[in-house]
Amino acid sequence: MANNTASQTETPVFYLKEEHHPETGTMLGFWIYLMSDCLIFAILFATHGVLGRNYAAGPSPADLFDLELVAINTSMLLFSSITYGFAMLQMEKGKIAGTQLWLAITGLFGIAFVGLELYEFHHLWSIGATPMRSGFLSAFYTLVATHGLHVTFGIIWLVTLMVQVSQRGLIPENKRRLMCLSMFWHFLDVVWIGVFSVVYLLGVLG
Quick one: signal sequence residues (predicted)? Predict the structure, then answer.
């Protein structure tokens, strides 16, 4: 009888207050997302392959692209991947300050990359090389801008994680989120190497 009374007075708990996200489910879902992103960029690369020589009597890549500027921009993204790797090493050591420092440096490199890309777009528009000018420029802007948007969202995600780490530390959930962003960031790095090689180098030298 006493046991029944005690059980009736206990406050029922219908949910867990702590975060509960199965690690395997999160990582699997993120891998599926990355595969879908691979398909998107594969389609954009294929589109550029079809339209990349359709200049419509307009400017060609050799007339438009500044390889030195693009090389500097590429180095910004490559350096950001290296600094993100340093952030992950600091995370594994449990050092919050070191993780935040390298994440901030990664974000600055990402901002520099996006800024140089916007400068290039502004320059091209100022000389009349707009997406409406030819099939080549339509494919170029679509591919490069899609990648740039991904980097922009990656920077927003990075800042969000920095806030979460500052508030809650390197808890398992934040570590898993940082791992997901790491895969996303390195994925964008690989895609950009393809853009630099196919769109810029082959376009100018081919």
Answer: none
